[in-house]
From TrEMBL:
MF GO annotations: DNA binding
Family: Belongs to the 'phage' integrase family.
Domain of life: Bacteria
Key word Ribosomal protein present: no
Keyword entries, A-Z: DNA recombination, DNA-binding
Taxonomic source organism: Leptolyngbya foveolarum
Gene Ontology biological-process annotations: DNA integration; DNA recombination
Listed InterPro entries: DNA_brk_join_enz, Integrase-like_cat_sf, Integrase_catalytic, Tyrosine_recombinase_XerCD
Official protein name in the record: Integrase
Pfam families: Phage_integrase
Residue span, Tyr recombinase domain: 34-209
Length: 211
């Protein structure tokens, strides 16, 4: 589809076609692809809470979902990035690949589990270390997600990034503002976040009418 779209758009730019016929394909294709990669809340929580393995691995799944962070961002987390708040929540500083830092609030229910797992680890220590004591790498998180998917009986392929999609979709569905989700996930454009508003097959404005 990308080649015909490019040709149609090019034809419009050079004046051969009066209307950019390639433009409508982009959002539709992206939205359809995104819809296929959003797990239900039930499947997401089943993968997290039903995981049978190392406590560390279940907490990785929980952290992916609770923060909406990318796998690489979770790999690079150290305990010094986390600060507990008076209300029991925690704030984690997440630095993306462009060296931009965002601050994400994590619920007390999640932070309590992470604190219990931390034990005596120093601020400089990785939150999720491998056996050598160094930070995990993404391939290890991929394996953990695959194991959790199989244990949960989910047939579709699932990657760590699907927890990020789930975070955005589920938070919006539960009433979080689109601006808040944008800042939490570190999207550069509001259009990226807005795509999640178009992928819920169970929601429509017609359901909000007085019928």
């Amino acid at each position: 589809m990308s080649v015909p779209k490019s040709l149609l758009s090019f034809g419009h730019r050079v004046g051969a076609i009066s209307v950019d016929c390639g433009k409508p394909f982009e959002l539709k294709a992206a939205t359809q692809t995104l819809h296929a990669r959003i797990m239900s809340e039930a499947d997401t929580l089943r993968m997290i809470h039903g995981f049978q393995g190392q406590p560390r691995d279940a907490l990785i799944l929980l952290t992916l979902y609770a923060t909406g962070a990318r796998a690489s961002e979770v790999c690079s987390m150290s305990w010094g990035h986390w600060v507990e708040q008076p209300n029991g929540n925690a704030i984690v500083a997440i630095t993306d690949k462009g060296d931009k830092t965002r601050y994400v609030v994590v619920p007390a229910s999640v932070w309590t589990q992470l604190k219990q797992y931390r034990a005596e680890a120093t601020d400089a220590a990785p939150v999720f270390p491998r056996r050598t004591g160094r930070h995990l790498v993404r391939s290890q998180i991929n394996r953990i997600v695959t194991d959790a998917k199989q244990q949960a009986g989910i047939d579709n392929p699932v990657s760590p990034h699907w927890f990020r999609h789930a975070h955005a979709s589920h938070a919006l569905h539960r009433g979080a503002s689109i601006g808040l989700v944008k800042e939490t996930l570190g999207h550069a454009s509001l259009d990226t976040t807005a795509a999640y508003l178009h992928v819920s097959p169970d929601e429509s404005s017609g359901l909000h009418l007085g019928l």
